[in-house]
Each structure stands twice: as structure tokens, then as C-alpha cells.
Amino acid sequence: MSKHKEGHSKSYEKLKSKTTLKEILDVAVSFEKTARDFYTAMIPKVSKNIRYIVEELAEEEQQHYDLFLSLKNDPYVQTQLDERIKTPTENHKFSDYVQLLDLGDNPDDQTILQYALAREDAAMKQYQDLADNAPEGELQDTFRFLAIEEAEHKLELEKKYYEIIHSGGPGN
Amino acid sequence: MKKINYNDKGSILNPLKNLQFYARKPVTEPLGPRDASASYRGFHINDLNKCIGCSSCQKICDNAAITMVEVPSIKEDAAKGLRNLRPAIDYGRCCWCALCVDICPTSAIEMTREYVHTCDGDETDSYFIFPKETGIHGDSFEKGWTKTEDSDLLDRIRRPMGEMLSEARIDNFDEIVDGFTLEMAVQEASRCVDCGLCEDACPAHMHAPNYIRSIYEGNLEQAVEWMYETNPFSHVCGRVCTHICETACSLGHGEGESDPIAIRWLKRFAMDNVSKTKIKQIARKGKARKKSGKSIAVVGAGPAGLTAAFDLVKKGHKVTVYESLPKAGGMTRYGIPNYRLPEDRLDQDIEVIQSVGVDIKYNVKVGTDISMAQLYKDNHAVVMAIGLQMGRSTRIKGSDHKMVVKAVDLLRMIPKGDKVNVPKSAVVIGGGNVAMDIARSMARLQQQKYGEVNITLTALEQLGKTFLADDEEVKESLEEGISILDARGPKQCVIKNNKLVGLETVKVISIFDAQGRFAPKYDEEDLQFHQADMVIEAIGQMSDVSILGEELTEELEWNRGRIQIDENGHTSVEWLWSAGDMVKGPDVINAVADGHRVAKDIDRFLNK
After folding, report:
1. Domain that residue A154 falls in
2. B255-286 pLDDT, tens digit each
3. Helical H segments across B379-456, by residue range
4. Which residue of B has its CA nearest to A161?
5. What's the CA gap between B344 and B306, in Å, rounded?
6. Among chain B residues, CA nearest to A95
7. Within a domain: A162
8. What is the pLDDT of residues B402-457, one digit of tens each?
9. CATH number of the domain that A112 lies in?
10. Is residue A22 situated within a structural domain?
11. Angular region, B357: left φ>0, alpha ψ -120 to 50, beta rest
């Protein structure tokens, strides 16, 4: 099993063991922080012509981190979760057909995007599974909300992937 | 007709005839206007939405009664042939001949049955009007003179271009298109109304109306002179240009059947019928006699690089072009098959460019055989124009098998004369023109080797709606026996016992979201297996910017994966410019326009 998949198995077990909304959001916040730090560390390592991809990924994870942190600290969290769960994002599965790869030392733009897609997909499935298995109530709502957030992020990444990989670049 | 004797002065008693009116009662006509006839040529109206501002009405008016005025609220779009000009009419000059109505390509301008207008004192300005859908006085009047098929001054039907039948062309790479005869070319050229929308739309602003007129007048050398003012790749563009000019052509805007002028084929005709010697003389015109003492290195001998080189040599600079492949042309040679663009025509364009003094060094790979730093050291400026020569991979499962290949790699092998592994059956992934090129090339090679064609092309996009390839490519591919399966996404390359056996695809339900961004939806239940000995990927291309080296890559500013340039192609590094496909995306005429832009800016920079 690749390092990537190992990490997700551990995080799934970690989330499954949590029972309160606050605990779940704590773990979710830490996941986003790990991702943000991962991409941030990658920035100086990739070639400058494709560095913008990793910078944008780091920023997107930062935004997710900020969102989950603010939810954790917001007394009206439940209201916001309800609102998001009513309008779930469709999962288009484009990224399902793109293989999971190890990044290597000098990843190209396609490798980075594939990794990011796979990560979002795994996170989304993770939260969906937890939502399906959680009892009705606050916990389930929280997992559903997180799944929707990851699905949206995945959708945006799929669009970016197509623009860069399939058409010769954003200039077209 | 009876001949009139103009010397006849008439009878001496003729003035006495007036006495007959002496005792008659005067008659007063009623003051109110009479109804005009059904086809009366009264005041004009103009449908401002149908009107494209082509100015044909202004040009045909012998009395100079029409002035085109700018209407800022109307959106201009040169590529679509839409100007924000609309006609204004001076009724002090208008003779109501209706030629403006009969020449209008879109039938926007018409005449009403209204004919009465009075003004007092200083109101003579009221005779100068801006016709809209309502008439001169803001009222709606019945239409009078309207263009009919008989009165239409335009010849709306294009002369057909003959091409080789599919059964005759499927086992060879001979050029498909017949080309115009002289008679056909003159007839086609005669359709042009000289509106200039084509020139506006062309990225290189080729003087199409001028060379069309020259062809009509039978002066082909003059036509080629006009072409060489803006495009040293006229043989190439006369065959494979994306002809944005034709999309803009005013005749293409007409209601019903109305074909744009075949500008591309006319260019082909003129270039094919002027000798190489003469073209070289034409190309040399305007070349500076004095050498500037400045030198420029151009990396890449494609349309952008060679156009820049051509312009710069004519300005008196020394230009050396470095090309990594054995011959010049870039994707025009190593991407476009011979049946669309015969190599000898491309060779002619390149020979003309070299004849003005451009030096091309072949089989020299910048980044390996010579560094960018060395190029800068030896020259005053450098142009990067290396195109998009590398193919992208889907990277779906199984795509790393040796029988999964990229279209651009295969297309490059054919003109190089390399031995191509011709599979008995192949599936092409992709729906753009490159996918068509490789499908049709492999079909020919299959026919030559096996006596039959077995090519399937699958694409995410939908035929007739979102499909990327040109309609004529699709039509000709189907004629050649290629099977096109649209709205199918690649899922995996199927390998059994280490052998590639085919491609599995999934049905695409929709591909773009409401904002037009890529967001495909699939029907997971609809899977298909396509047997194939080879899978060919034609999903996209990229530039090999690694030749820049790490230091220069860090020094440069980038814009989402492409070198950042200003409107003149100048990068953030003072001595470096970039042009063509690598910065603007794939298109020959845009590459030519880019080459001009960059050359102009470099010349300005060197003369500072």
C-alpha cells in the first residue's frame, strides 16, 4: 500500500473514534493543516513554471483550514451545517479514472494535480462513509458537511486538471 | 431604340402650342400625400441588430450619401465580423436608387413607403438621419423596396472546391484538395464586396480584400505582393489556416444560404501560380541595405520563429535560427499530414524565408547542444518559439504500456521517415484536429499495409455540439472509414498477459457546466470495450520549457504555466522574447502574427 493510502486508513480510524462535533472538527482542522503544510513545503521544490499549482493548492487548503477552524469556534455552527447539507455537490468521478501516484522528487504539473485530486477524493469518501455509518444527528450532519466541502474542492480541481492537461493550457 | 437627331431644332411654330393652355382652368392637387406604390423607394430603415457595420452600403453609394458612424453601445467583435459602425444617410445627396439595399449582405437596410419630410429655415440638418427600425420620424411605415433574389447584387454561393474521393485517397498521403482553376478563382474573387471585415479579423491583418481584387484582375504577382506584406507563410496558410477571415466575411452573415468568400483557397491559388523565383523577389522587397550590426537568436523554426526571423533580417539584423529537428516548419511539418499540407509547399515558404538571409541551424537542441546563456552571450536578443511539441498522456490505468503512444510522437515520425509500427487496429483518444490527423494518417498506413482500415476515435465531447475538430475533418474521417464514438471518456487501457488488448470507455452524459467549465458527468453503467493493438493519446500538448535551464526558469515570471509576456511578446527578462504556440496556444496564423509583433518590438529595443 502506498504511503498515501496508509495515511488515509489511519485518519479514517481516527475520525471514526470521535463522538462530538468539536472532536470531529478538531481532526478535520488538523487534516487541512497537514495538507496545507505539505503543499507549502513543496512550493520551493517544484519548477517555477508550475509552482502556481502548488501555491494555489496550499491556499485552498488554508481556506479550508480557516473555514473548519471558524466553524469549530462558532456558536452557530449547527445552523451553518444544516444549510450546506441541503445542497450537496454531485460527485462526477472524473478523478476516479486518474491513477494514484507517488509524487517523486520533481513532480510535473499533471502528477501534482493527480495527487491533489486523489487526496480530495479520498477525503470526500472518508467523510461520506462516516456519515453513512453515523447515527442521525449532529455527528452525521458534520460528516456530511465535510464530505460536501471536499467534493466541491475536488470538482474545482477536476476543472483545473482539464484546462491544463487536456487543452494545451489556460491560454486556449 | 429610335435614333434621336440631336441637331433637330423642331418647328418654328412650336412655342404657339402653349396658347392652348391660356383659357384652361388651373388645377390644384390636394396637399395631403398620396399612398406610395408597394415597392416605393422611400426613407430608409435599418435593423441595428442585423446590421454588421460592413460598410458595403457606404461603398456602393455613388452620391456619397452614406456615412458610417460609430455607435459605442454596440459591441465590436472582429473575429465574428461585427463592427460598431452603422450607416447614417444624407437625404440632400441620396437619390433613392436602393443600391444600398440590394448590396446589404444581411438585408438589414431597407426602404419604406414613407416619402414626405418638410423642414423650415435652419432645420436642414434634419435631412441627415440615422436610420433605425422605425423611420425618419420615429413612426413605423410599411416597407417599400425590399431586396429580392433577383435584385440581390451579391453572388452568395461559393465556387465548390473539388477533392479526391475517399477510395482514391485512403492509401496515400497525396493532397486531397484539387485547388481552383483560373476561371473558378476569378469567379470566386468577383463575389467579394471589399468590406474589409476579413482583414480586421485576421490576427496578422492580411490584406485579403486587396489580394482578392488582384486575383479578380488577373494580377497574381500583385496578389502575392499583398500577401507578403503580412505573411511569409502564405503557402501554408493557403492550405491549413483556421480562416478566421471567412468566419468574419460579410457574405457569411446573410440570411438563408450565403457562403463566405473562399479566402483561404484564393490565397492557395495565387501562391501556386506565381513562380518561386518571383516570390523570392517579392519577399526581398523593402529589405534594409545597411546591416545593423545587431544579431538575434531564434529558438525554433516554426511559423512564429521564422516570421520573426524574416522580419528582423529585412530590418538589417543578423538572425540565426536554432532548430532541434532535421527540417524547419515545427508542427506544420511534424504535425500536419501531407494530405493537408504537402511538404514541398512548406519547403517553398521556408526557402523564400531563407533566401532573404535567415540562417537556420538544424539538429541543434538548445539546452543540450547550446545553452540559453550562450545564446544570450553571442547575441543582442533571443526569441523562444519552440511550440507545443510534447504530447500529454491521460495517465489512466494501463497507459504506461509500450503500445500506448502519443499522437504527436507518431505524427513526427511520418515526415521524418522513421519506421512506424502500424497496428492492425487502433483506438485514438481525443476529439481535436490532432486526433483527426493521427487517425487519418494511421488509416492510410493501415490501408497500405493490411488493405483495410480499423481505427476508432473516442472523445469526451459530443459531435455537432462540443466536438473540437473542424467539421470538414470529421466528414472526411468518416468517409475514410474511421469510426467516431463521441461522448465517451477513457477509463482504462486493458492489458492481458502483458499485451495491450484494448481501451475501456464510459459514457459521458454531459461535459460542461452552466458556466461552460469542464465538469463531465458519467453513466457508470454504460461501459464499452474497444479492441485495439494500439491506443493513441491525443488529448493535449505542452512545451518543453526545461531547455531554459533552472536559473533562467527561476529568473523569468510565469503566467499559469506559460512564460509571462507583455502585449509585444517581451518576457520579464530584458533580452528574451517569446512567441507562437508556447505562449498563445496552437494556430498558425496567430503564430505568424506573434512573430511580427515580437520582431517589431525587438527592432525597437535594439534601436533604442
Report:
1. 3-166
2. 788 999 999 999 999 999 999 999 999 999 99
3. 407-416, 433-450
4. B518
5. 17
6. B396
7. yes
8. 999 999 999 999 988 899 999 999 999 999 999 999 999 999 999 999 999 999 99
9. 1.20.1260
10. yes
11. left
Interface test with B, best of A94, A98, A163 (most B CBs within 10 A): A94
Residue ranges of B 373-392 with Cβ closer than 8 A to chain A: 388, 392
Q: Are A52 and B521 in contact (CB < 8 Å)?
A: no
Give pLDDT, residue B14. 82
pLDDT in tens, B27-80: 887 777 788 899 999 999 999 999 999 999 999 999 999 999 999 999 999 999
Q: A19 vs chain B: nearest CA distance in angstroms? A: 35
Helices (H), B316-406: 331-334, 343-355, 372-378
> Per the CB < 8 Å rule, is B491 touching A97?
yes
Cell representation of residue B213:
481584387
Please list every residue in chain A whose beta carbon sits closer than 8 Å to the beta carbon of residue B522: 92-94
Decide if B586 and A51 are in contact by the 8 Å CB cutoff.
no
Domains and CATH numbers, chain B: 44-129 (3.30.70.3270), 170-282 (1.10.1060.10), 289-389+559-606 (3.50.50.60), 391-541 (3.50.50.60)
The gap between the terminal CA atoms of chain B, to the nearest Å, is 72
Which backbone phi and psi does B545 adopt, to 5 degrees?
-80, 0
For residue A172, being part of any structural domain is answered with no
Smallest CA–CA distance, residue A105 to chain B, in Å, is 15
Q: Which of B441, B452, B434, B428 is nearest to B530 (CA)?
A: B428
Per-residue confidence (pLDDT) for residue B582, from 0 to 100: 92
Residue found under cell 390644384: B28
Contact assignment for A92 to B521 by CB distance below 8 Å: yes
Question: A97 and B524: CB-CB below 8 Å?
Answer: no
Whether residue A8 lies inside any domain: the answer is: yes
Contact across the interface for A165 and B562, Cβ inside 8 Å: no
Average pLDDT along chain B, 608 residues, taken 10 residues at a time? 76 83 83 84 95 97 97 96 97 95 96 90 85 87 91 96 96 96 98 97 97 98 98 98 96 91 98 98 96 97 98 98 97 96 98 98 97 96 95 95 97 92 97 96 97 97 90 96 96 97 95 80 94 97 93 95 95 97 88 97 95
Torsion of CA B87, B93, B97, B99, to 10 degrees: -30
B517 in contact with chain A, both atoms CB, cutoff 8 A: yes
Q: What distance in Å separates the CA atoms of residue B474 and residue B525, rounded to the nearest whole number?
A: 28
Position B494, amino acid: V
- When scoring A99, A105, A172 by the number of chain B Cβ atoms within 10 A, the one with the most, hence best to mutate, is A99
Taking an 8 Å Cβ-Cβ cutoff, which residues of chain A contact chain B? 47-53, 90, 92-94, 97-99, 101, 109-110, 114, 155, 158-159, 162-172
Query: How many domains does the structure of chain A reveal?
Result: 1
